[in-house]
Design a protein that fits this description.
4-stranded antiparallel sheet; 0% helix
Length: 127
């Protein structure tokens, strides 16, 4: 069983930065594909970024490419999302996700592919 706890959300003006963290329990963090998703009320959970177990490959939604960076520290069982040049449309609840068996780069965009989820952290960007 894996438990994920996000932190680092908050309120910032447009153009600002935040760094989200997701701490994972358990001994299998290093074999987990990790992802970040976000959700606003009334909409489906949206893919933001993902990183492979070794950190050798990352992928991003077009809307955040070049502004957000996902990284991981397997020694600390933690994955990060550095968010720069934030826009009001980035406002959402951000969720950390993990899966032990997800390896397909064609499906890691889908929330249904991830078995473990955090409770979410609110990010609010004001204009």
């Amino acid at each position: 069983q894996v438990q994920l706890v996000e932190s680092g959300g908050g309120s910032v003006p447009a153009g600002g930065s935040l760094r989200l963290s997701c701490a994972a329990s358990g001994r299998i963090f290093s074999v987990l594909t990790m992802g970040w998703f976000r959700q606003v009320p009334g909409k489906e959970r949206e893919f933001v970024a993902t990183i492979t177990r070794d950190g050798d490959r990352t992928d991003y939604a077009d809307s955040v490419q070049g502004r957000f960076t996902i990284s991981r520290d397997n020694a600390q069982n933690t994955v990060y999302l550095q968010m720069n040049r934030l826009k009001p449309e980035d406002t959402a609840v951000y969720y950390c996700a993990a899966d032990r068996y997800l390896t397909s780069t064609s499906t890691w965009y889908f929330a249904r592919e991830y078995d473990y989820w955090g409770q979410g952290t609110q990010v609010t960007v004001s204009s």
